[in-house]
Amino acid sequence: MPAIAARGLVKTYGKQRALDGLTIEVPEGTVFGLLGPNGAGKSTTIKILTTLTAPDSGTAHVVGHDVTRNPGRVRLAIGCVSQKISVDPWATGRENLVLHGGLYGMRPRDLRRRADELLERFDLKAAADRLTRTYSGGMQRKLDVAMGLIHRPKVLFLDEPTTGLDPEARAAMWTEIAALSRDEGLTILLTTHYLEEADKLASTLAIVDRGRVVALGTPEGLKSELRGDAVQVELAEAGDAMRAQRALERLTTEITAAGRSLRARADDGAAAVPAVLAALDAAGVAVLSVTVARPSLDDVYLRHAGRVFEEVAA
Ligand SMILES: Nc1ncnc2c1ncn2[C@@H]1O[C@H](COP(=O)(O)OP(=O)(O)OP(=O)(O)O)[C@@H](O)[C@H]1O
Q1: Going by CA atoms, what residue is nearest to atom 18 of ligand 1?
Q2: Per-residue model confidence as pLDDT tens digits over 246-288
């Protein structure tokens, strides 16, 4: 039985179709990433799976319980860490954990022990009895995740767990999330805008666009579907994009233009560079740079959603 199974989820807000038949299945003990730009439908999916809102149609089960028929069972089995930090700034780290565990009706002795265990695990022991308003963003985020785990859930939902963190705190959070799934067999569903985060953490990835899953697989599998290298050309003038596109048609495939950037694919990118430069020069197109890279998740996104990820996110 999968830990999470959602089939054909549809959710509409007024005229806005947030989910348009989204289907995912998450095996127990794995980290599943929902990757997509702002407005793709990631948070709406989490809201449905965590019983905060009901789908217009479709079904969803979490650890075997139907989210609409049996929300109480689902809530006991899951931990949620929402996009916004939910720690009480006027309580200490330990108090936050105890307050949160109390909501689940945990017994005081067990709760104290579990709070200590989590403070230790998230390296917050020294700060445990300080008001959390004195914590750094990274520490607050760690406490937030610890709160989500207080009642020993089987499935943890993390909605953009590293948004707003500096690179160091982000890397530390990645280490924690990977360890949670590896050491404790926790099933984790996370949403992210960061291609790098999805690449690093998720064993399976669903790329979401306009409320649907447009690509599904392991990060490596998705990347290896793409043949050859990605060639990116920065033009001096956006007005040259059409001419440049035509000049590259015989040398590369899958050419797309966005502003002054052109992306294309070539079997051997490095070998294609001189020919690309020569063809653009012959067409009278001024070039600022040409770069070649192995396919990234960005290329996977472009292939499946027909758009460049960063642009959509911006
Ligand atoms: N309560 C609401 N009322 C109206 N529209 C909503 C509501 N919640 C979400 N939407 C709309 O539904 C669409 C999907 O939103 P959702 O928050 O699920 O996307 P997301 O992928 O999580 O984006 P983000 O990365 O910004 O959190 C968006 O167009 C959004 O504006």
Answers
A1: 41
A2: 999 988 888 888 889 998 888 888 888 999 999 999 999 999 9
Of the options 2.40.30.10, 3.30.70.2470, 3.30.43.10, 3.40.50.720, the CATH number for the domain spanning 227-294: 3.30.70.2470
Q: Which CATH architecture has domain 4-223?
A: 3-Layer(aba) Sandwich (3.40)
Average pLDDT, stretch 154-177? Answer: 89
What are the boundaries of each domain within the chain? 4-223, 227-294
Q: Is there a contact between 270 and 241 (Cβ–Cβ < 8 Å)? A: no
The dihedral sign for the CA sequence 295, 299, 301, 305: negative
- Kindly write down the DSSP assignment for every residue of 34-60, as one continuous string: EE--TTSSHHHHHHHHTTSS--SEEEE
Secondary structure letter of residue 32 according to DSSP: E
Q: Is the CB of 16 under 6 A from ligand 1?
A: yes
Q: pTM of the full predicted structure?
A: 0.82
Closest ligand 1 atom, residue 19 Cα? 14
Alpha-carbon span 87 to 283, nearest angstrom: 59
Whether ipTM > 0.90 holds is yes
Q: Is the minimum distance from the CB of 39 to ligand 1 under 6 angstroms?
A: yes
pLDDT tens figures, 280-311:
999 999 999 999 888 777 778 777 776 666 65
Q: 37-46, 85-94, 165-174, 290-299: lowest mean pLDDT where?
A: 290-299
Report the alpha-carbon distance of residue 241 to residue 261 in Å, rounded: 8
On whether the CB atoms of residues 91 and 144 are closer than 8 A, the answer is no
Q: Hey, what are 251's tokens?
A: 């040398």
Higher pLDDT, 4 or 169: 4
Distance CA 249, CA 226 (A): 18
Please report the pLDDT score of residue 3 as a whole number.
96
Residue 20 corresponds to which tokens in the numbers above? 């348009």
Query: How far, in Å, from the CA of 73 to the mean position of ligand 1?
Result: 26
